[in-house]
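User: Run a structure prediction on this.
Assistant: Running it now.
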Amino acid sequence: MRKSKRYFLNFVEEFIMNPKYVGYIGGRMEIYDNEGDGQYAVDEDRYFTKDVGFHEFRDKWDFKNVGPRTLARIRRELKDKYLDSI
């Protein structure tokens, strides 16, 4: 029986040095799959936002294993809500 594809999510915040962006939260969501050795991310999505709701979103999904449909939904929400244009 084939094991279903799963993804492990890890949020990594990055220090923003530019004083123009004080108050912003920036970083990446690393995506690992259960088919590799788990040492390297297979993909990542960026975030950059002032939305304080991001903390709740990150806490909900950080260090979680999810399936493909849930991953697609999380990626859409990250892009639509937490990737500000500057």
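Residues 47 and 79 are 7 Å apart (CA to CA).
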